[in-house]
UniProtKB/TrEMBL annotation:
SUPFAM superfamilies: YjgF-like (SSF55298). It comes from the Bacteria. Pfam families: Ribonuc_L-PSP. It comes from Arthrobacter jiangjiafuii. This is RidA family protein. PANTHER family: BLR7761 PROTEIN, YJGH FAMILY PROTEIN.
Length: 135
C-alpha cells in the first residue's frame, strides 16, 4: 500500500483527520479545488453540509479520472467562507453524508481547514483540494 495514514502519540487527540501521511508511490495526483457544482447542472446546495458532500463527490470524480481513490490521498485542504468553530458540526455532517458512498476513510487523510473571505462565485461556501500518491 503506497499510502499510510497515522497520528503519532502526543498530537491533538480525537481529530477528525490523521496528522501524518507517508507515501511510497511513484505518481502524484493533484485535484484542484472542487466546489459543489452538480453534474446535472441543478442548483448547488445552499447549506454547508450539502456543499461539502457534493464537493467531496466531485473530488472523488477527479481522483477516479486519474485512476486514484481516497485511499491514495495524502493531503486535503478545505477552504470555507466565514468560518466559525460552530460550523464544525455541519462540515462533519457533510463528510459523514458521503463517506461510505465515495469510500472516504475516516478519520480523514491529513487535512487543513482555512477560512477565506469569499470564493470565486457568490453562494459557494466550501472548496476542497486533494493530493494523492499512487504506484
Amino acid at each position: 500500500m503506497p499510502v499510510q495514514l497515522f497520528s503519532p502519540e502526543g498530537m491533538l487527540p480525537n481529530a477528525p483527520y490523521h496528522h501524518v501521511a507517508s507515501a511510497t508511490g511513484t505518481r502524484s495526483v493533484y485535484v484542484a479545488g472542487q466546489v459543489a457544482h452538480m453534474e446535472d447542472g441543478l442548483p448547488i446546495p445552499e447549506d454547508l453540509a450539502g456543499q461539502v458532500a457534493q464537493a467531496l463527490r466531485n473530488v472523488a470524480r477527479g481522483l477516479a479520472g486519474a485512476d486514484a481513490r481516497f485511499q491514495d490521498v495524502v493531503r486535503m485542504t478545505f477552504y470555507v467562507t466565514a468560518w466559525q468553530p460552530e460550523k464544525i458540526g455541519e462540515l462533519m455532517a457533510g463528510i459523514q453524508l458521503v463517506a461510505e458512498e465515495i469510500d472516504l476513510p475516516l478519520p480523514l487523510p491529513p487535512a487543513s481547514l482555512i477560512e477565506v473571505v469569499q470564493l470565486y462565485e457568490p453562494g459557494i461556501l466550501v472548496e476542497i483540494e486533494a493530493t494523492a500518491v499512487v504506484d
